[in-house]
TrEMBL record:
<feature type="binding site">
    <location>
        <begin position="298"/>
        <end position="301"/>
    </location>
    <ligand>
        <name>GTP 2</name>
    </ligand>
</feature>
<dbReference type="InterPro" id="IPR016484">
    <property type="entry name" value="GTPase_Der"/>
</dbReference>
<keyword id="KW-0677">Repeat</keyword>
<keyword id="KW-0690">Ribosome biogenesis</keyword>
<dbReference type="InterPro" id="IPR005225">
    <property type="entry name" value="Small_GTP-bd"/>
</dbReference>
<dbReference type="GO" id="GO:0042254">
    <property type="term" value="P:ribosome biogenesis"/>
</dbReference>
<feature type="domain" description="EngA-type G">
    <location>
        <begin position="3"/>
        <end position="167"/>
    </location>
</feature>
<dbReference type="InterPro" id="IPR031166">
    <property type="entry name" value="G_ENGA"/>
</dbReference>
<dbReference type="InterPro" id="IPR032859">
    <property type="entry name" value="KH_dom-like"/>
</dbReference>
<keyword id="KW-0547">Nucleotide-binding</keyword>
<protein>
    <recommendedName>
        <fullName>GTPase Der</fullName>
    </recommendedName>
</protein>
<dbReference type="InterPro" id="IPR006073">
    <property type="entry name" value="GTP-bd"/>
</dbReference>
<dbReference type="GO" id="GO:0043022">
    <property type="term" value="F:ribosome binding"/>
</dbReference>
<dbReference type="GO" id="GO:0005525">
    <property type="term" value="F:GTP binding"/>
</dbReference>
<comment type="similarity">
    <text>Belongs to the TRAFAC class TrmE-Era-EngA-EngB-Septin-like GTPase superfamily. EngA (Der) GTPase family.</text>
</comment>
<dbReference type="InterPro" id="IPR027417">
    <property type="entry name" value="P-loop_NTPase"/>
</dbReference>
<keyword id="KW-0342">GTP-binding</keyword>
Length: 445
């Protein structure tokens, strides 16, 4: 799974600027989950072959005891708990503050790998101005300028070094193609662990009536009717009698990692709560990751007819981009409606891993063009010549031809519909990519 890097520091030291620099996009992933402040963001980043998740936090005041600063401190502690390595950002121009000492003391106590980073160090002589930061007792000080991009590469290499990442790590054992990796995702307290407990027929996962009992993404081997599964739940496996901490432990990072490591994602909704912004964020990330998805609305037995109608409307409007997914109405606690869910999971996996022959794709493409040609763009009309498969999970179809940059999104959706109908694709995104052929005479006089 992707390692996690948390950016920590007092307000206005440049954490968000560094986040932007690392992720190359301010809104790579914005997690608007319950209990998370707007100052806590999650983003994907890449260094060489290594991908990792970056968490941007609000200003950290470890000693805050009330108000918004206490809430921000709570969220920062959660980010640090989720992280594999912490980047402690200080202000090279502003110098040390009492708050920096408090943060350093907290990080030293945790003992988690920490890289001390002095931001806004452009044009400064490191050996002189940065000496005072060694007082924090966190080792070497790395001078950077997030705004100007100076020192970022060496900082990331230093941060990833304690994680033991190497080229060998990239060459892991190939997964068994016969095993379906199924992730169960959803908001806190929608019944994820209860559902898996019902499937397994035993209390393998903690089901506790408190949002956020879950801590880590775990994998549970499971077999049904001869088909092997790996159930990935964003829940921690507990020993019986373990005392629960009555605090929010829902981990956004673990949900994102579980989705990325799965073949199929079961997105669980709560009928009593309707479709919330949180559900839409999770659904959006599933789509962005290209994973096959099945929708299940849990606690259907606990709502009346009016609420059921509202849920249907909300799914049609707020989750319209998942219209290719099959929806099921279930009750995990009462074991109602669970059988058909497995059929949809199998169908979604089949669709995600399907092999589409080039001759069939090309025939479908030419038939679609004969039925409806793409619109002209000025003097030219895009010429679609042939198609082939470019990947699986999600399936990718690459179309070759001339002037394809002028093909409209609506025409791509038209083609997608034709391909979906022919191969009976359900529950998986389908990506249609256009590749314009190079004219060998274009550069000649």
């Amino acid at each position: 799974m992707k390692p996690v890097m948390a950016l920590v520091g007092r307000p206005n030291v440049g954490k968000s600027t560094l986040f932007n620099r690392l992720t190359k996009s301010r809104d790579a992933i914005v997690a608007d989950f319950a209990g998370l402040t707007r100052d806590r963001h999650y983003g994907n980043a890449k260094h060489g072959k290594h991908e990792f998740i970056v968490i941007d936090t609000g200003g950290f005041e470890p000693t805050a005891e009330s108000g918004i600063y206490m809430e921000m401190a709570k969220q920062t502690r959660q980010a640090v708990a989720e992280a594999d390595v912490v980047i402690f950002v200080v202000d090279a121009r502003g110098g040390l503050s009492a708050q920096d000492y408090d943060i350093a003391k907290y990080l030293r106590k945790l003992g988690k790998p920490t890289v001390l980073t002095a931001n806004k160090a452009e044009g400064m002589t490191e050996g002189v101005q940065l000496t005072e930061f060694y007082e924090l007792g966190l080792g070497e000080v790395h001078a950077i300028s997030a705004a100007h991009g100076q020192g970022i590469r060496s900082l990331v290499e230093e941060a990833l070094a304690p994680l033991g990442l190497s080229e060998e790590d990239e060459e892991e054992t190939a997964p068994d193609p016969t095993v379906i990796k199924l992730a169960v995702a959803g908001r806190p307290n929608v019944g994820k662990s209860t559902l898996i407990n019902t499937w397994l027929g035993e209390e393998r996962l903690v089901a506790f009536d408190l949002p956020g009992t879950t801590r880590d993404a775990i994998t549970v081997p499971f077999e049904r009717n001869g088909q092997k599964f790996e159930l990935i739940d964003t829940a921690g496996l507990r020993r019986k009698g373990k005392v629960f901490e009555a605090i929010e432990k829902f981990s956004v990072v673990k949900t994102l990692q579980a989705i990325e490591s799965a073949n199929v994602v079961l997105l669980l909704l709560d009928a009593t709560q309707g479709v919330t912004d949180q559900d839409a964020h999770i659904a959006g990330y599933i789509l962005e990751s290209g994973r096959a998805v099945v929708l299940a609305v849990n606690k259907w037995d606990a709502v009346d007819e009016y609420q059921r109608e509202q849920v249907h409307r909300q799914i049609e409007t707020r989750l319209a981009f998942l219209k290719f997914a099959t929806m099921h109405l279930i009750s995990a606690k009462k074991r109602q409606g669970l059988g058909p869910v497995w059929q949809s999971i199998a169908a979604a996996h089949r669709s995600a891993m399907i092999k589409m022959p080039t001759p069939v794709l090309t025939r479908l493409l030419l038939e679609a063009v004969a039925f409806q040609q793409p619109k002209r763009a000025g003097m030219f009309r895009p010429k679609l010549r042939y198609a082939h498969q470019g990947g699986m999970n999600p399936p990718v179809i690459v179309v070759h031809g001339n002037s394809l940059e002028h093909v409209t999104d609506s025409y791509k959706r038209f083609l997608e519909g034709r391909f979906r109908a022919e191969f009976k694709l359900v529950g998986t995104p389908l990506r249609v990519e256009m590749k314009t052929s190079h004219n060998p005479y274009a550069d000649k006089d």
